[in-house]
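Sample 3 of the quickstart, ligand beta-D-mannopyranose:
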Amino acid sequence: MKYRGYGDRNYPELFQRYEGNPILTADMWPYQANSVFNAAAAEVNGETYLLVRVEDMRGMSHLTLARSKDGFTNWIIDEKPTLLPDVENHPEELWGIEDPRVVYIDELEKFAVVYTSYSEGGPLVSLAMTRDFRVFERKGPIMPPDDKDASLFPRRFNGRWILIHRPMPAMRAGKAHIWISYSPDMIHWGEHRILFKARRGGWWDAHKIGLSAQPIETNEGWLIIYHGVRETAAGNLYRIGLALLDLENPARVIYRSHQWVFGPKEPYERTGDVADVTFPCGAIYDRDQDRLRLYYGAADTCMAVATAKMSDLLEFLKSGG
Ligand code: BMA
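Result:
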């Protein structure tokens, strides 16, 4: 559908919330948990896997797998934590592991799980590989603190891996922007540069921005779903915007949305441990149905899902939305 510019009231909302939201809550968990949110998403043998951040009753997080055949209902949740912090071998995981993003790397026939380790020195970016979401091979930290909101791309570009991440300027001296970095082996990273910046002043994404879901490959470029934070007198507002990166050179931003496309509205998004947060860490693109399923943490408390037509998202970006 053609977007006619700012203030087009006839333009429908791009994302439709699933009527059964929230799809996962702490009450459904097989063991005691405070909150279940900010899950990575992957398609595995036709099933939807969510690697869910579970916050325990001490305040520390680990990751647990929930699986569903249709991606909306009948979730089968692991009886025990799937990936716990391993503080003995990885002291950087001291205060938990959070907010994973997963991509399937064809070349390696493995999933790459990039997650935040909450270390004594602040949050940092860690990497683990898995074939089956049972056995995880930790690669350790790949970006020092403070850094989070990271994902790999699922393939190499001119022989090199690419990571998107969000370093935090020291002492909060500047704004927090989205960065891109390169590596020959996923361990040694360099050529760091800003991919796109937090806006300034009155913009919805003026305070800080960060990658949300993993990059999604479309025919027209890599769809980037990112969160923008607005500081208000009542606290932070976490909303979602879009960008499109060049297919062969993801350092080139082709489009970036001016407006946010999704934000807190429903009671489960507006009320919880942290009010007014919609925070996706994973999405699944059903190409045959032109559908994107966006999985998001709501109010740092539960998991929800919303869907959009991929063609609408691309059209919105292209027509200056
Ligand atoms: C961010 C991250 C997310 C969290 C969000 C809102 O900085 O820590 O895990 O969902 O804040 O509290």
